[in-house]
Amino acid sequence: MQNTTSIPLPSQPGQPAVLLYCRPCLDVQLMSPYDTAPLYRERGDDFEEEPDQGRNIFLQRHSGHSLTTLKKKKDKFSADRPVWDPFRTAYEEVTDGRETFLLKSWRADITAPRQYALLRGSLDIATTVTLPEEPLRSSLAGCFTSFTPLLPGLMKALQRTVSTLPSDELIPAYCSADDPQVSFAYLAEHHLRMLVQLDNKKKN
Ligand SMILES: [Zn+2]
Question: What is the spatial distance between Cα 117 and Cα 92, in angstroms, rounded to a whole number?
Answer without folding.
Answer: 11
